[in-house]
Specification:
143 residues, alpha/beta, five-stranded mixed sheet
Amino acid sequence: MDNPLWPVVRESARRLLRLDGIHLEIPFEFKQDFDRVVLAMADSQPSRTVFPSVTYGGNATVQLILLSPEESLSGTVVFIGMKEPKKNTCWIKKDVVEGWKLLMETTHELLKAGYPGCLGCGGPHSELPWDEEKSRQRIQNNE
């Protein structure tokens, strides 16, 4: 929790679970993880009818793309990789394998806690607007 990446990983997992119209672009090696998280979402959110879609490729990055703008978000809303994305994208600045693992672990933890159907279970400050600039500064100060 004291790792400066923890808040952005948490926010990224919240976006995956909360936003409708999410499309993932991920390496094929993550297919089983993706299938497991979608099944966990279906089990934990029985009223949910729309689930994330996916495209598999050999990319050295992971992107979560919001297909329908929502909550003043659009385009790539989460990016895992070492190349800096646009300023309003949650950036998990990690090797794609390690970053994906963190995202999946956190997503499953939030589902077990009841997110997004519960109040406050999204973690500290989860109800506040995300400040990506502050997150990047915090990470840069700790490198």
